[in-house]
């Protein structure tokens, strides 16, 4: 093949084109031929190491027309790796699609639930333009409940599942003060940490003490109310009865001094001639002088306890 070339004089010259032997062909990129088990093993290893970027490159290197394409799309390790990569790339729509469209084993629920909630938290924070508080996160959880593919449906109470709380209560009834060995055993049985187990026992003891004090105060109050009710049922003299008794006492004293003959009759007896009343004798000034002098002296010295004559 000859290619025309313009020379300095303006004429065209011809020279042979370079031979193809000088540019050897580039060898094709070798296709990865991993089996589905090998792909799952690599995904698990990279996931445990925490190298998400390398995990992403490995997933992208897999051929689209893999011979076991359908099997890979159903493998839990591969699906979990794809969800992890989507989460770290903030591709939350892809993350939600993977989690909602595939059922995962119970051992993967905790990690996938954390990614589900954190993804919704980040979207809500970006939408509101501020970090979320505890109340905001609670509203997000209520608005976007976890799918049943990563949740067994068991409700959580006070951050612990009811099954875990039941087991903790059983151990608490046996020993409210477990030693470190028992705490580790209980932590292994419940999936909690020994610190969480210790904090639960401590809080439960405090609640029981507070409840005991409250019950004691209520018992004392009930006993006091019962005594007051018993006294009321036994009966106490009323004001009318007291007045009646006082009237009887006054009548008794009046009757004792009214009739010397001991008669109880209310009728007035006739007065005889011998019992005719005579007017009282008027005292003269000489008889009143000592009494007036005593009265005058007592007024002159009011602070003394004795009267000076």
Topology:
Elements lengths: L1 E5 L5 E5 L19 H14 L2 H10 L7 H6 L1 H13 L3 H10 L7 H20 L5 H10 L12 E2 L2 E2 H13 L5 H11 L3 H41 L4 H20 L26 H16 L9
Antiparallel strand pairs: 1-2, 3-4
Helix pairs in contact: 1-2, 1-4, 2-4, 4-5, 5-6, 9-10
- Shape, per Cα inertia axes: elongated
Strand content: under 5%
Rounded to the nearest angstrom, the distance between the terminal CA atoms is: 169 Å
Sequence of strands across the biggest β-sheet: 1-2
Count of DSSP-assigned helices:
12
Helical amount: 55-70%
Largest sheet: 2 strands, antiparallel
Order of helices and strands: EEHHHHHHHEEHHHHH
Structural class: mainly alpha
Name the quaternary structure.
Answer: single chain
Strand tally: 4
Poorly predicted residue ranges: 7-12, 17-24, 26-31, 238-279, 305-309
The pLDDT mean sits at 75
Radius of gyration: 54 Å
What does this structure look like?
This protein has 309 residues and is mainly alpha-helical. Among the domains are: 36-153, no CATH class; 154-230, Homeodomain-like (Arc Repressor Mutant, subunit A, Orthogonal Bundle). The chain contains twelve helices and four strands. Strand 1 and strand 2 (12-16) form a beta hairpin. Helix 5 (92-101) packs antiparallel against helix 6 and helix 9 (180-190) crosses helix 10 (194-234). 11% of the residues are buried. Mean pLDDT is 75; it is low at 7-12, 17-24, 26-31, 238-279 and 305-309.
What's this model, at a glance?
This is Homeobox protein SIX6. The chain contains 12 helices and 4 strands, in the order E-E-H-H-H-H-H-H-H-E-E-H-H-H-H-H.
